[in-house]
């Protein structure tokens, strides 16, 4: 009885360890949603996704109960125009990171049920190709202050 | 005969070289884009392409975000920053409006929104390239969110087209992923500077660094305000003009 308890404890510990390990393979830093006017139909979320594993991981989808739909987009200059290009997925190289930032990759949050205010947090679920999914809380920031965009993202 | 053949091959080489130079020239010419107005790139303004000959604006009439008429008269005796965008645009447009807000505060902090010598003010304008969705009431919710002093303009699609094209602003509607109403609009993301006579004087291409743009703007303003505000008959009238006393 005691032995089997020990064994199951080991299993539980192993399980805890392995899931913690899976979490550590992907880390999300500096996530923020740009606060938008009360009637906004679309918002953008930015973050840095780090892949600490030894294999490329691919972000295949993002969901959030507050939004109708979430797409991965990339802003690109094309024929002198800024163009938003929907991405099917986004790869994060082994041991590397991808920065989602204004004027580049971003998550386009479409059809918010209510537009979140500055200081609030939204929940997003990031889904990766290896079956891993990660729940993140993303604060809504005004980004209105002088030099906000540049200073916040210039140093990463 | 031998001499002749050498000289003809020399001519051939010369022609090839000439053709090369011509092709190179054409490449540079087309590389610059034939749509853009004639420009002078001045080293003194790192963030701006300043036009030696300003581009005159066409006549137009649009509505601002509170429903008032906005015509080229509204450009007179003010320096105007313009950004063309649309409200269903989550990344590029808010970024540009936040940048414009930062330019505004850079100037406001040092009480430089109004140019001291001639009393010429500064205004910030957002013109929609999506008038179908961006009505006056949409803009009323959107534009003041970034800065309550900013002006949003909408109106007839053809009218907006006739303003944008001569300024080198291109845009094109592209279908979104799903619904018909979900379309996106590709558009130029430059911030334009209109002088106090309503002519385009400079273009700030992205990515925008508000501090640098504000610094360049101060220098452009210093260099060109006099030209705009003291010419011939206007001289006396302009000197006594004070934007602050203008009736709201």
Protein described:
- The complex is a heterodimer of chains A (156) and B (248).
- Chain A is an alpha+beta fold and 156 residues long.
- Chain A has a single domain, classed as PCu(A)C copper chaperone (Immunoglobulin-like, Sandwich), CATH 2.60.40.
- Helices cover 19% and strands 49% of the residues of chain A.
- Chain A is built from two helices and ten strands; from the N terminus they run H-E-E-E-E-E-E-E-E-E-E-H.
- Chain A has helices at 2-25, 148-153, and strands spanning 26-34, 42-51, 57-63, 67-78, 81-87, 90-92, 97-100, 105-112, 121-128, 133-141.
- In chain A, strands 1, 2, 3, 4, 5, 6, 7, 8, 9 and 10 form a ten-stranded mixed sheet that branches.
- In chain A, a hairpin with a 2-residue loop joins strand 4 (67-78) and strand 5 (81-87).
- The longest helix of chain A is centred in the N-terminal third of the chain and has 24 residues, at 2-25.
- Chain A is globular.
- Chain A starts with a helix and ends with a helix.
- Mean pLDDT of chain A is 83; it is low at 145-156.
- Chain B is of the alpha+beta class.
- Chain B folds into two domains: 1-34; 48-245, Glutaredoxin.
- In chain B, 38% of the residues lie in helices and 21% in strands.
- Chain B contains six helices and ten strands.
- Chain B has helices at 2-31, 92-109, 136-146, 157-164, 210-229, 234-240, and strands at 48-56, 62-64, 69-70, 78-85, 121-128, 151-154, 171-174, 184-187, 191-194, 199-204.
- Chain B has an eight-stranded mixed sheet, sandwiched between helices.
- In chain B, helix 2 (92-109) packs across helix 5 (210-229).
- Classes of the chains: A alpha+beta (156), B alpha+beta (248).
- The A-B interface holds A 34, 36-44, 69, 71, 73, 75, 77-84, 86, 102-103, 106, 108-110, 143-144, 146-150 and B 33, 35, 87-92, 94-95, 98-99, 101-102, 105-106, 109, 138, 141-142, 145-146, 170-172, 174, 177-178, 182, 184, 186-189, 206-207, 209-211.
């Amino acid at each position: 009885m005691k032995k089997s308890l020990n064994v199951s404890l080991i299993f539980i510990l192993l399980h805890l360890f392995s899931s913690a390990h899976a979490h550590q393979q992907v880390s999300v830093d500096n996530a923020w949603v740009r606060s938008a006017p009360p009637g906004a139909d679309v918002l953008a979320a930015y973050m840095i996704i780090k892949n600490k594993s030894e294999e490329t991981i691919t972000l295949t989808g993002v969901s959030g109960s507050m939004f109708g739909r979430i797409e991965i987009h990339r802003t690109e200059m094309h024929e002198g125009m800024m163009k938003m290009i929907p991405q099917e997925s986004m790869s994060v190289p082994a041991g590397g990171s991808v920065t989602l930032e204004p004027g580049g990759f971003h998550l386009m949050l479409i059809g918010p049920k209510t537009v979140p205010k500055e200081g609030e947090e939204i929940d997003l679920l990031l889904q990766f190709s290896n079956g891993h999914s990660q729940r993140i809380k993303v604060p809504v920031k005004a980004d209105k202050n002088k030099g906000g965009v540049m200073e916040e993202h210039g140093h990463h | 005969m031998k001499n002749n053949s050498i000289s003809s091959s020399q001519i051939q080489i010369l022609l090839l070289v000439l053709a090369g130079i011509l092709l190179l020239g054409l490449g540079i010419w087309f590389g610059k884009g034939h749509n853009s107005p004639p420009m002078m790139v001045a080293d003194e303004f790192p963030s701006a392409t300043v036009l030696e000959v300003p581009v005159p604006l066409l006549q137009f009439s649009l509505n601002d975000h509170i429903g008032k008429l906005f015509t080229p008269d509204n450009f007179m005796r003010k320096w105007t920053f313009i950004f063309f965008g649309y409200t269903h645009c989550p990344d590029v447009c808010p970024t540009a409006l936040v940048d414009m807000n930062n330019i505004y505060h850079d100037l406001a902090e040092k009480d430089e929104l109004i140019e001291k010598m001639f009393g010429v003010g500064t205004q910030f304008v957002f013109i929609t390239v999506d008038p179908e969705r961006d009505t006056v009431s949409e803009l009323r919710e959107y534009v003041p969110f970034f800065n309550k002093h900013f002006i949003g303009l909408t109106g007839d699609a053809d009218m907006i087209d006739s303003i944008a094209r001569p300024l080198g602003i291109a845009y094109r509607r592209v279908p979104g992923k799903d619904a018909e109403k979900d379309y996106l609009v590709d558009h130029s993301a430059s911030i334009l500077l209109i002088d106090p006579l309503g002519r385009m004087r400079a273009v700030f291409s992205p990515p925008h660094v508000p501090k640098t743009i504000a610094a360049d703007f101060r220098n452009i303003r210093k260099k060109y305000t006099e030209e705009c505000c003291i010419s011939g008959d206007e001289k006396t009238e302009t000197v006594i003009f004070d934007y602050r006393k203008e009736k709201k």
